[in-house]
From TrEMBL:
This is TRAP C4-dicarboxylate transport system permease DctM subunit domain-containing protein. The chain crosses the membrane at residues 27-48, 60-81. Part of the tripartite ATP-independent periplasmic (TRAP) transport system. Its main location: membrane. It comes from Thalassospira profundimaris.
Length: 95
């Protein structure tokens, strides 16, 4: 997430010039980063869980599959219908 925070000042003008909602893109980016944290080969969270549980990495990876599919489903939903991610922030902004 440090790389995301460090590059956001460069990426924000590009996101806005592409016509994307910055709030939607932030939520999208968080989901993508979390998916990358629970999938091999990087899967940092998998290695943390492996060291905490004492199980082998294959067992931990198999146990994380339901969460992977839920995150992927959410990512697909907000890609098809961006209003899902921007509805509540829109209510707070338009108060």
């Amino acid at each position: 997430m440090v790389a995301v925070a460090g590059s956001s000042s460069v990426a924000l003008p590009m996101i806005q010039s592409a016509g994307l909602d910055p709030i939607w893109f932030g939520i999208y980016l968080v989901l993508v980063v979390e998916i990358s944290q629970i999938t091999p080969p990087v899967g940092f969270n998998l290695f943390v869980l492996q060291s905490m549980s004492g199980r082998d990495i294959l067992t931990v990876t198999k146990a994380s599959l339901p969460f992977f599919f839920l995150l992927l489903f959410g990512l697909i939903l907000i890609t098809i219908w961006p209003e899902i991610a921007t509805f509540l922030p829109g209510l707070m902004i338009n108060r």
